[in-house]
Protein 1
Amino acid sequence: MSVRGAVLRQLGLPPPYAESRPLELAELDLDGPGPGELRVRVRAAGLCHSDLSVVDGSRPRPMPMVLGHEAAGEVLEAGKGAAPFEAGDQVVLAFVPACGGCRPCRVGRPALCEPGAASNLAGDLLSGARRWHSRDGGEDPLHHLGVSAFAEEIVVSARSAVRVDPEVPPEIAALFGCAVLTGVGAVVNTAHVRLGESVAVFGLGGVGLAAVLGAVAAGADPVVAVDRVPEKLELARELGASVSIEASEDAVAAVREATAGGADHAIETVGSEGVLAEAYAATARGGTTVTVGLPHPERMLTIPAVSLVAEERTLRGSYLGSCVPDRDIPRLVSLYRAGRLPVDRLVTHRLELDELNEGLDRLARGEAVRQIVTLG
């Protein structure tokens, strides 16, 4: 079948992206689903900073590739063995397809699924298959994190999909596949924030503001938000942050003052080793620093090694919010529907599929939180 998809053919094209046009809207052929796979009509997809990190080359991926990894859609067709999914289901797509059989999956850590990581790195589906085909005789595109959300229809592993209530609007449901899962998960699953503990969030994109929402819902006090964009700091306060601090040379001292000596939990979402070092420096004795950002693989972090012992400090990574998508996405959706996670406030712009390059510019300038591509 023929579908339109946004193909990235070359890493590192320079901004402004509205001029260099790294994402090319192309007519592609898409195979039907194989065993254990689903054909999904994408209803909405989020434009995430991780997509920008692929475009600018700081998160290298094989090329060409149909980009996008945060989406919600409708199941059109289920391949053999893809139960319990059936046509008509609304699904949210997680960007790590969990095989269910490897050691991390067996011990309840599907975000670290080994076959899922290998297929994501190669640009394959979990089965090792590729379902995209070029129509112009060029190289066939690869899959982005098992999803390739920036397309009208996609084929995904059923292990990437979670059924959600069809009454949740797709443009909101899509957020639970990355921003909400990652940000809230970092608070509740990785940091294990408890009532009354202090939380500082460094970076207020979609993931960072979701972490603010998660900290507020967990009863953290105070919740400190740090960013360089005044509008994002204002939004963080509207979402329940107790204190907002402009990122500067004095930010660490300001966080430590706001939290009476350091945050019990500091969460870094920027993907910068420098910001991570600041978050670590702003963490209290006995506290936990959690990083969810993805810096370039060659970047290195330097911290005082003795502090890990002498101050009983913890530094933890959090991928996919340390979540179990089948368990956590429905729970988080329930919190949204109960009014405790107003994630709809994260949506700042709505785009058409052919406006993605302009959206990348907006993201690079720090002018957007979550931009949602609507596809009907």
Protein 2
Amino acid sequence: MKPTSTPESDPRTAGRARPAVQSGTFILGGDLTVHRLGFGAMQQTGAGVWGEPADPAEAIAVLRRTVDLGIDFLDTADSYGPEVSERLIAEALHPYPAGLVIATKAGFDRPGPDNWVVNGLPEHLRSACEGSLRRLRLERIDLFQLHRIDPQVALEDQVGALLDLQREGKVRHLGLSEVTVEQIEAVRRLAPVVSVQNRYNLADRKSEGVLDYCTQEEIGFIPWYPLATGDLAKPGGPLARVAERLGARPAQVAIAWLLRKSPVMLPIPGTSKVAHLEENTAAALLELDDATLKELEALAAP
């Protein structure tokens, strides 16, 4: 009698159940292996990235479902809420499953909804890190990212504060957000950088040069706002037509394109709804052939 496969032993079934596994892997800093399709937790807050979510139970359900879907890389920040996103992650997932990597960021003050004030003072970065450790219930943050470089504070002081936290064992690896190639190189002269988080998507490729640099240097590139597709996804639009041909949603095609774009790409689409999370994560199962990839590349000029 022929042995039958269980859902867990059949790779095809397992892939559908945990689609993020199919996105491939990337090694952050040489020692943290993550699936390339992660989750951004900014939307687990209220309007204007301020206060509690409209539906706290759904927010918790979304975070728990990420792990079920094979996602093992979560991105958050102390400024999301502020503090709300980090607290909800711990509430939903602590004690954390083995292999889960939580990245957070510091470098903003939040006076109110939709209000962001850059603050790279060393004492602020230290206080933010220690607050994140408490809220996330961690002894060490795997990836601690400078949310913005503060032009009013010496770069050496900002990076020095992060290095102090790293030497104290409170931070494992360092990352940057919204930076130029020149800024990355300036920081790398002071400290190792394992990731860069810039806005990048099918319709907005202003950071193409930064992506090329990260690809060359094998630095993880985390595109924020990965699903912004503008007019491309409107009914009858070019992205919508590609999606219809593939039997997929435009957002899924946009995510699949990012995953094909570079081996260092780590998309983190976020959502406040479980159904939307499942739809986004299924993008890792979508295969784009070379002709479709070329077609998508031509949709918007870099």
Protein 3
Amino acid sequence: MKAANSLLCCLAFAARAGLSAQEATPAHGGPEVVHTVYLEYQEADRGLVSWVFLVPLQNARFSKEPDFGRRRVCRGSLRLGSEPEDAVPFAWDPGQAKLYLDLNRNGDLTDDPNGVFSARSRSDQTFTNLHIEFKTRIGTRRLLADLSLYQTGLRWGNRLMVTLACHSFWAAKVLLQGQEWQVGLVENLAGQTPRRNGTIEVGLGRLGSAEDGYLLLRPWESRNQPFNLQDGSLDGFNFRRDLFIGHQAYQVDWAYDQHDGAPGFKLELRECFAALGELRLTGRFIQRLVLTGTPNPPAAGPFTVVLDRPEPTVRIPVGSYSQCRIQLEAGGAQACRLEQASPVMPVGPSNAAVLTAGGPLTNTVRIVPDEGSLSLTYQLVGAEGALYQLLHQDRRHPPSWVVYRKGEAIDTGWFRFG
């Protein structure tokens, strides 16, 4: 048997331009170089990142609300802003698939014409294009999101499970190492308090903070392409204050500040010195590699290292790296590695480290007997034995299989996604 869609497996990849490795700019012996960028608020057509929240419900009615009759209604408040008054009271009428937001926060759910939303389906109640404003110390700012609400009965107690998909981000153009980049920030509204059941408590007031956020970094010419932070692609990623791009080290500083009369984020990329060590890459077809360092005193960092189309040998900051994210490209197809964690990889000033990751990718089929039948699972395996998945999959054409007996095809079929 074989998988018909080879895709990335045997594609030859043409020679590609890479950044030459060189030492990072010294922090002394010359003028300090700081790249200052003011990011502008932007909105995407699709959700960029989503979080699952548990929202406490209230028993009390609002001072004024629509006539819900005898239908069961869920009432509560979404607490996304930094102040208690930023909470957005809501009432969800699942019987009518409607959501009412108190956008002006006056306790009246009948005087917000832009705060009434309808879901397309009563079975999957997702409310799209919710524009919410928040008052901050430096002005009013916006948020665009989709909300999916779930009736969970008594499983979560007197709480509602909500999935929030954020469309909002901040971005601008910056010139680094002679190349124009789109650099940006997607705020992490959830913070770092996951619960045992996999959800995250709402109400941490993350708006206006870059802490634990996502750094958007891609070539300027790609700025109009859609991106997602949870599909495995690496246009954006979690980052640390110490950042290494190509062959230059930076210290990253953020400030939520006012610019041209509107609130936003100021980003400073300060060029700095980093002792470098050698890293050898044995895999092929690497489009972007993101390494995350672990604290390792007295070495600087830990660094987040970003390498685009790297050469087989590169120089990166000395330290230990415990997380490797990788995106491949060949023949117009892209893939990402499913596993992020990897054994701690030490990069020293004199001894070269070796990272086996990337292509070529091999189509494989895992066969498991299952009560008189065979269970076939399609897997895309990299050079290091890790599993990969294709990005931007065309689900109309899933991978197929064929069973042969004595050279003759006796059965064929397709793998199901998921």
